[in-house]
Write a structure and sequence with these properties.
Structural class: alpha/beta
Radius of gyration: 28 Å
CATH class of one domain: Alpha Beta
Strand content: 5-15%
Oligomer: single chain
Distance between the termini: 92 Å
Helix content: 40-55%
Amino acid sequence: MPLFIVGHARSGTTLCQSLVSRHLVLPTLPETHFFERLRQHEPAAGVLKADAARALLESLQPFLPLQLPAFDELLAGPTVPVRRLFLALIGQVIGSQTLADQGLWIEKTPGHLDSLERIHAMFPDARFLWMVREPAQVFASHRELLEPGKGWGDEWKPVEAHCAHWLALHRRGEAFAERHPDRILQLRLEDMAADPEAAMARVRAFVGSEFAATVPSGGPQADIIQPFEVWKRDALKPADPAIAQRAGRQGLSAWETWRVQQLLGPQMQALGYATDAPAPPMDPLHHELMAGLDWYRQAFEQRDQLMDVKTTRIRSLLKELGREDAPARARKAAAAAGQAQPAAKRKAKPKPAPPSFTLDD
C-alpha cells in the first residue's frame, strides 16, 4: 500500500514527506514527476510503447538519479506496462525492488494532485496525503522564487492566475475525496508546523498500523531534495510555525490579499482560513476594470472546463480502443482470413491436364 503526498506547490509537501518518512520508517525519494510527464504520452490500456517509455524515463532524468541501462530488459519488448515501469523506477531510486513491489514507500510530487484518479486506478490500495496552506502564503512563496537563484524559472503571474490554478487543483482534490473518502487525508501546513506530533498521529491512524510493520530501518534512503532545489532548504528544518507563516518575509500586498480572499473565499473558509481582509478603496474606474477582468476570468474558466471534458472523453475512447485484447484481434484476423480463403483457393485451383493420346487410338 504505497503512500503519495500531493498538494499545491509551496504548501509544505516536502516537510510532510520528511516527517512522515521518519515517523513511519519508510523509504522515500525525490519528486518523480512521473504522472505529470506520463500525460504527454497518453498510454492506452495501461501500457506504453517501448520507445515512449524510454522517452518518458529520459524526461525524468533531470529530477531523479536514474541509470537508464538498468531498464533495458524491461524495454526490450514492444510495450511496457506503466505500473511495472513506475515500480521499476521506484525500486531503483530507493534501492530495493522488493519494497517497491510491496508498496512500502512514499512518493511526493505536488502536481500529482492532478492525477489522483489515474494513480488510484493503478494502485487501488494507495493512500494520499493532501497538503494545504493558506493561499495568500502559497502565492507569496511562489513570488519569492522569482528572485535569482531561488526558483525553477517560473514567470510572474497576477494573483488571479494563481487563484485559478489553485482552485482547479483544489476542486480535483475535493472531487476525489468525495468519491474515495477513505483514501485521502487533508493536512494543513499550519497545523503540522505547530504540532507535528499530532499531525503524525493523524497520519498513523489514517494509514493503519500495518503499513510499515515489515519495513526495516537503516536501509538505503534517497535524498529527498536534489542539489538544484535550493528553495526547499527550510523544509528540512524542524517544524516551525514561523516558517509556515513566512514570518519576516515579504507577502502579498493588501490589495492582493483581499483579492485572493474574494476569489477563494468559500474554499478558504471551509479550510479554516480567515477571509476578513478589508476591501481597498476603489474609484468607479477600478470597479469597471475589475468587472472586465472578472468577465474574462470566468470565460477562461469555462473554456478550461470544456477542454477538460473533451480531454476526458478522448482518454476514455483511447482506453476503449486499448481494451481490445490480443485474442479478439486474433479472432478478427482469423475470420478475415477465412473469408478470403475460398477466393484464394479458386484462384489457385490447378487447370485440368489436356487429354493424352497414343498411337493405338
